[in-house]
Amino acid sequence: MAYLAKRHANYTRCFRSFLIGICIASVFTAGVLYVRHIQTRQISENVAQLSRSAKIANGSDRFQRNFRRMAGGLRNYLSTGNVTSRHIYEEAVADNNMVLHELGTVVPDGSEQKILLDDIRELQQYWIDEVASPLLKVREAIVDEQGERYFQELCRQKQVRKLEVDVGLSLQRKFSDLLLHTREAYLSGPAN
């Protein structure tokens, strides 16, 4: 009987050691899984931020390329009256509006990037309202050859070209600032 009690005590001790080992392994495994979960979440946030940065960079390039197309199409239409050039201008305006909308969904509300994006939108609208639209209206109102010569002289004036360049440079600076703030936001960590 004493032998059985001793044997039972040994089995109980072994069983307890076995259970303690399993508990320690479980706690260790849970800790490892928790750390992996945190790392996975951080990686996902970093990938999202990187994706957002790439979309902003691509949108910036596309917008600036379209602005050059807008200006070139408008200039060509004004000097030649070629309707295809007017369509190029209108397509570039529509595409830029789409780019601004897409960037607006990527940039967080209330951020410095959103303020810069609104500035860019206002600059484009200023160029359309104050430069392009008045020139298009004058171009469409021309009915005779004398009006055509006057209009050609108006288009050759440096002031129109200077406005185009000034607005283009302002847009370029705003996009540079937008990209800089995007980079800073990425380097400072994931957005919440």
Structural topology:
Blueprint: H1 2-80, H2 83-106, H3 112-141, H4 145-156, H5 158-188
Keywords: Membrane, Transmembrane, Transmembrane helix
Pfam families: CHASE3
Domain CHASE3: 49-141
Protein traits:
192 residues; mainly alpha; de novo design (two linked rop proteins); transmembrane; CHASE3; membrane
Q: Can you walk through the features of this model?
A:
This protein is mostly helical. 92% of the residues lie in helices and 0% in strands. It contains 5 helices and no strands. α1 runs parallel beside α3, α1 packs antiparallel against α5 and α3 runs antiparallel to α5. The protein is rod-shaped. Keywords: Membrane, Transmembrane, Transmembrane helix.
Low-confidence stretches: none
How is the biggest beta sheet arranged? Answer: none
Radius of gyration: 33 Å
Number of domains: 1
**What is the arithmetic mean of pLDDT?**
80
| Global geometry | rod-shaped
What's the CATH architecture name? Up-down Bundle
Can you identify the CATH class?
Mainly Alpha
Give helix and strand order, one letter per element, not per position: HHHHH
By CATH, the topology is de novo design (two linked rop proteins)
Beta-strand proportion = under 5%
Count of individual helical segments? 5
Helical content class: over 70%
Distance between the termini: 68 Å
Provide the structure class.
mainly alpha
The total strand number stands at 0
Q: Can I get a quick summary?
A:
The chain has one domain (53-188): de novo design (two linked rop proteins) (Up-down Bundle).
